[in-house]
Specification:
- The chain has 291 residues and is α/β, with parallel strands linked by helices.
- It is globular and about 50 Å long.
- The protein is built from seven helices and ten strands.
- The strands form two sheets. It has an eight-stranded mixed beta sheet, with helices on one face.
- Helix content is 34%, strand content 18%.
Length: 291
């Protein structure tokens, strides 16, 4: 029996859609519409271990290899449901408010770092092809990434395919110092690599920075940490990097680590103000928004 009490809302970011392996759909609180997700990491392997991550890695994932034929078929099936209007009769999508019944974007985002998939460049081309076949070229194509692998030739090729499709890089920048980076992103990878990759990418095309701030055991980033974080944005802009948008936000869904808690809106506004001051000093056409 269908659970009619279940509501499709901002807390529901399930990766499950029928029996799909790679394609899922969620209601995005930032886009205020349907976001179609492409999960290139069904094995749940990630080179970050962010404490705010919602992925349950205690449950084993699937195969590492991505079958592009299956991925394309799943996306085609979902877009057929959307085009016919049938999607809105399928639980839980049947409970979505009328203003959310639109496809806002297709995003490479899932259970790990999308660019780590061997099939990443071909997956970008395949998804762009299906989107075009449905006449949805105006629907945004986004890559949600931690920017750790941009220096690899295959990833560079995938980014070029994303550019050709009019897509956009949405990259994480959750810290200003290496110490806080290691703590909130749960990795031993060098922070300098992320910063170098972000700068190189931003020199070639405008990017979006996704900046998650939260408390761990009740303690959030210090004022000095926020000053350092704003300084990283300054570093990108002063060498000619292009940042279209800085997204400042906190935890909205239950994280895997119970020590993590959201920051109040007032603190997020203070953090955003630090970024706005840097942007203003460069006269950059960068929007800083709190979500």
């Amino acid at each position: 029996m269908t659970d009619r009490t279940r509501q499709l809302d901002f807390t529901d970011h399930s990766r499950k859609l029928a029996s799909n392996r790679y394609v899922y759909a969620v209601v995005s609180r930032r886009s205020r519409g349907l976001s179609i997700g492409i999960n290139l990491n069904p094995d749940k392997v990630c080179n970050f271990a962010c404490p705010y991550c919602q992925v349950d890695r205690t449950v084993p994932g699937g195969d590492r290899a991505v079958d592009l034929n299956v991925l394309s078929a799943e996306l085609t099936s979902l877009l057929n449901l959307f085009s016919s209007g049938e999607l809105w009769s399928v639980p839980p999508f049947d409970t979505a408010a009328p203003e959310f019944r639109r496809v806002n974007d297709i995003a490479f985002a899932g259970d790990g770092e999308p660019t780590s998939a061997r099939e990443f460049p071909d997956a970008v081309s395949a998804v762009a092809g299906v989107r075009s076949a449905f006449g949805l070229s105006g629907v945004a194509l986004n890559l949600l990434t931690n920017a750790t692998l941009f220096h690899r030739p295959k990833v560079t090729a995938g980014l070029e395919a994303l550019d050709a499709a009019g897509g956009e890089i949405w990259a994480k920048l959750d810290a200003g110092t290496a110490a806080w980076f290691a703590r909130v992103d749960g990795t031993s990878l060098p922070f300098s690599r992320v910063l170098d990759n972000l700068t190189a990418a931003a020199k070639l095309r405008p990017i979006v920075l996704q900046c998650m701030f939260h408390a761990i055991d009740g303690t959030g980033p210090s004022d000095d940490e926020i000053t350092s974080w704003a300084g990283r944005i300054d570093d990108i802009l002063k060498v000619g990097g292009m940042i279209r948008l800085v997204q400042v936000y906190s935890v909205a869904r239950k994280p895997a680590d119970p020590r993590v808690s959201p920051l109040p809106r007032s603190r997020l506004e203070e953090i955003a103000a630090a970024a706005r001051a840097v942007v203003a000093s460069h006269g950059a056409a960068t929007t800083v928004a709190v979500y």
